[in-house]
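To fix ideas, we reproduce below a protein record of this kind.
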Amino acid sequence: MSDSDVLWRPSAARIEDSELTRYRRWLGGEQAASDYLDLWRWSTHDPGRFWSSLVEFEQVRLGGAATGPVAPTNMPGGRWFPGRTVNYAEHLLREAPDAALLVVNDDNQGHVVSRDELIRQVGALSATLRSVGVGPGDRVVAVLSNRAEAVVGLLAAAAIGAIWAICSPEFGATAIVSRFAQLEPKVLLGIDGYRYGGKIRSSRDDIASIAAQLPTVEQIIWVDSDSPGELIAAARPVRSWSDATAGDAPPEFAEVPFEHPLWVLFSSGTTGVPKGIVHGHGGILLETLKMLHLQVDLHRGERFLNVGSTSWAVWNTLVSSLGVGATPVLFEGSPVWPEVDRLWQVVAEHDVAVMGLGAGYLHACLKADVRPPRSALRTLLVTGSPLSAAGYRWVYDRLGDLWLASMSGGTDICSIFVGGAPDLPVRAGRLQPPALGAAVEAWDPHGHHLVGQRGELVVTRPMPSMPLYFWNDPDGRRYRESYFDMFPGIWRHGDYIEFDEDGTSFIHGRSDSTLNRQGVRMGPGDIYQVVEAIPEVQEALVVGVERGEDYYMPLFVAVADDADFGHVKSQIRAAIRAELSPRHVPDEVIQVRAIPHTRTGKKLEVPVKRLLQGEALADVVDLGTVDDPQLLHDLAT
């Protein structure tokens, strides 16, 4: 490791105070004195002992009696903790702090929901759900923004053993129905409006449309937050939130099998009908406790802000922080309104200790020369897309002595594969080593392990939060095709990754969007790192399009309003030629108003490529998942 790219090292006091150190001491033996990489090797070579130790360390209460080995040896299809029972909601509410939730509205006003009140509402809502016939395995769906009612809904459904799914209201009716109709839900939770960008946006018409297209719904529970007392008109029975959460009976927790379905998360819908990814109670509980305690170093009593809508898996992680005794900060609103530095103001004013956000926000702060106020922030988590070396340096220039943990994972596992080692240094532009229990490697197309070269990100041993199955995939074909077709029995995630000898890594982007110019393969992330470092460039998107025997590689760029685009084009071509490869100078540099993303912040390289290959817009992407659908309409015409 070169000291020149090390931006931060944890102090001895920080290492001593970390949850990872506490876990090592609790383990004792060789693991107590091992370094991080040795501990990681042990956790992946002996997964049964590792995950069993985590159950004890986190004091997870498992019922039942074991009927087989703790950890499966094969993927897919192996079972974790067979014969044991657990309930995700029970653990979270048992460990929740006295100040269970901090809700911050778009106007930056905050209020606390106490542990007692959270437990009361979960008990009341779960009783209401049972009263209308909801039982284990039934589906409860919600169209709610990031607020306390969403947390109560998830925990009430989980307490019963019902299966939960949620979408943020800004998705729109069509995108939401394409997801929820698959589930045939029994109950729908809906909200009359949400706050964003300083405005109250009504969702009443969308909820009415959604309800009309879900014939299996027997009960609507209406969150009338902006117009109290005004219920939605619908053909099904409607009950107000206040009525559904009246009462003070404590929650009754169903003891469900370890792998009982907890929730359905949906893929982005950029390659067809969104896939319903089903996760289990026990796997999610163990994986998120491990991630939040040992990888994120979140402490009991701290406030944790994970920025993202309820449709993104980071929201589920935020709720799970109750399980380590932290207070989730539920931020409802725009992170850039009224100014781009909004999140830093929230962090400072509400004493946030750990914040997670997307790399795109940090890059926007860098471009806007934001100077955050002093705060209690000690850890900054970055997800969603790779953070550039310039982004790393901006963080340490403007925020000082904190731990920047850039991480990469996925909705597929609702966790991370790489990044998050609190006792190791931070290198510019690189993610820290793999997470404990995640046997991650880079492989070439022949299945050979690579170091110092880009390869397919693979996972060679099962992880407990891998999907139980996909919804409406009875024979498991879509599941196997998604992860196990290239390397049978080995999870191939679809990202290109490059590991260094010290275990740090760099994500080169999706392997299905790789550029292959004259036989030289390059990830789009390599292009972005160079192009987006140019001050006038706000963001870029590059695709390689096969057109018969021709290969067309355009680069789309959004630039600052006052930029001379002719000069910017020259800079881009020169930078790619000098820093990457003459072969990867684009055929065209095209100015666009903005770059299209999913609502979770991922660039839409594959849909744009398919559009340029002549496919219809309706066939390449679910527009309800796109942050600015007009951008794709413009490309399609």
